[in-house]
Amino acid sequence: MDQKKIGRFIAAKRKEKSLTQQxxxxxxxxxxxxxxxxxxxxxxxxxxxxxPLCNALGITVNELLSGETLDNSYQEKAEENLxxxxxxxxxxxxxxxxxxxxxxxxxxxxxxxxxxxxxxSNVYQLGDFPTPLTLGYLVAGFAAIYLVMMTTWLGxxxxxxxxxxxxxxxxxxxxxxxxxxxxxxxLVPPAAAGMLGCFALSIWSYFHHKRPRQ
Length: 214
What we know:
Elements: H1 3-16, H2 21-28, H3 32-39, H4 47-57, H5 61-66, H6 74-118, H7 132-157, H8 161-181, H9 188-210
């Protein structure tokens, strides 16, 4: 379904009824921002709102989903709209599964990497109690690792190189900050090079994919 077309249709029918966005919103019991979002093509009305919206505009649900006034092609458009709704639900369900997979993979990867990096920490030595500062370092370290892993996995799932390079750039930045705080000067050059290099690659990837192909 064409959200832009449906949005223009809603706006046209609203104006035919001499209704403002606020007046239409009041009739349905929603905010005028929601009406504006529909008319801009940034979303579709929820199923529970379709009938009240259609009643307020004097149209049918099939006309709403088609984004036009229907005549003899009513049955054909009804079938197309039904198929479109089914496909949209399937797409949303698949997207939800992907997010769950990404979160699970990121969490497992983060825990494994966190344990690998801090396995020799004195926190795990018997008789030693971690100070609040040490705990803060460990929590911040895990948060940084998880953020990098989430961004990386999202980039992999979406085949988005910009996100992957951005994640590597952030990881290099964290490494650079740690090297400064612990005066590990030998780590500064590679960390800085990795940060700048991956950041430059993420910018290049963004503009490379944004440029229209001939």
